[in-house]
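I am writing to request your help with a piece of structural work I have in hand. I am sending you one protein, given as its amino acid sequence and as whole-number tokens for its backbone shapes. Kindly check, if you would, that the fold set down in the tokens agrees with what the sequence suggests. You will find the record immediately after this paragraph:
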Amino acid sequence: MSTKPSIIVVKKKGGHGGGHHGGAWKVAYADFVTAMMSLFIVLWLMNTSKKIQEAVGGYFRDPSGTANKVGSYNQGTADNFIVTKDNMEQLKAQLQQAMRQLPNIDALKNHIEMTITPDGLRIELLESSKSTFFNSGNSELTPDGQEILILLAQELGSIPNRIAIEGHTDSKPYPPGSPYGNWELSVERANSARRLMQQHGIRADQIMQIRGFADQRLRKPDAPLDPSNRRVSLIVEYLQKHDDSPGPDASEAKGGAAADSAPTEAAGAKP
């Protein structure tokens, strides 16, 4: 009896390994790309400005943007934060922290004073014998003066509180017969500070008053020629909750020598 040979069928696999078509490598590659992207984001943030770093940090701390944080650059936060007598210290601390980032702060720190007063936070930029913030005898800002005022404008522009700016001089007179004196210099320096700050964050409706006092409010009455009597003062006023903004005549009712109406007859001081 004859038997038929068994037919054996051999199936050969394709030339490519099966592992090549698996999905495990894709997961590993995706993890690698994510890690590299995170690294590049961190490196980028380390080289950005303080403003951007705080904005990114503020988002992760408060994604909804509802926290009341002074100095926050999240849109909408400034309208919610009210600087009152109860939390003015928080604003002062925020400004001091921001100033520590200035490259020349060691040379300027003794010429910047912050004091909480019944009117609000008073920030004073005190001149030295070397003309720290303004060039001698005029209202032109020095590079250091521009830097500190720009920083203050960026910080204060994020809150709704209004600001008054004052100019002061010492008692050193200009030459007799000079058409320019104490009153002109004090008002023009205050107005020069206002212009720069409005260009870098302060809103036009945030400035309440520009005042020039010449040498009538000396910081050191017993030393009328002391350079620190020459100063520009920023007063961040308290803002009451639900306080309506005053009308256009409100600043006139509060008095003070305005930029367009300061007296000009008194003897001037030439720093």
The chain has a mean pLDDT of 79. The CA atoms of residues 84 and 239 lie 6 Å apart. The first strand starts at residue 112 and ends at 117.
